[in-house]
Design brief:
The chain is an alpha+beta fold and about 170 residues long. About 30% of the residues lie in helices and about 30% in strands. It folds into two domains: about 10-40; about 45-165, no CATH class. It contains three helices and nine strands. The strands form two sheets. A seven-stranded mixed β-sheet has the order 3-4-8-9-5-7-6. The longest helix is centred in the first third of the chain and has 28 residues, at about 10-40.
């Protein structure tokens, strides 16, 4: 007889409950394995599109590309997501993401903002207000497009909008 302060149990009862518990445990393991075998997943990793997204983020968030650098007493502070209109040039983007086809545009929230492009290679649609930065390929497939909430720094003012960046 097994005795304990809380309860006492006879040997046959203890043996039966132990064997029953082990049997239930083994059945549970087999059920889990059987369910795991029937659900076979194949993951397809599209690292190519991930790389395009990373390059698109670099265009908007890197000081080497289009991000605005604010001069502070301690040096320069890079403002990720705020595009510097003075940096809009095809040469700058070419050096930033060399060897890739790209297309960049900025869509301001307000069509009546007063800034106008005076930089070679940039045009602005007067009806929509969209700034087009001449890329190497304006007809890229839609799967390469990434839209970002962005701002544009021009003439001491910041304009709200979205940036479309396509890289292939």
């Amino acid at each position: 007889m097994i005795s304990n302060k809380k309860a006492t149990m006879e040997w046959p009862t203890f043996l039966i409950s132990t064997v029953f518990s082990m049997l239930l445990f083994i059945i549970g393991i087999f059920m889990i394995v059987d369910v795991a075998k029937t659900s076979n997943f194949e993951f397809q990793f599209h690292t190519e599109q991930l790389n395009y997204g990373l390059l698109a983020s670099r265009v908007l968030n890197s000081a080497d590309c289009l991000a605005w650098e604010e001069k502070t007493p301690n040096g320069y502070l890079v403002r990720a997501g705020i595009l510097d209109f003075g940096k809009f040039s095809t040469d700058r983007i070419d050096s930033c993401i060399s060897g890739k086809s790209y297309y960049v545009e900025f869509v301001p929230l307000s069509k009546t903002d007063s800034f106008s492009p005076t930089i070679k290679g940039i045009s602005r649609d007067t009806q929509t207000g969209i700034l087009y930065l001449a890329g190497t390929n304006t007809q890229l497939d839609k799967k390469y497009y990434d839209w970002f909430a962005a701002k544009l720094f021009s003439g001491g003012r910041i304009y709200d909008g979205t940036a479309l960046v396509a890289i292939k």
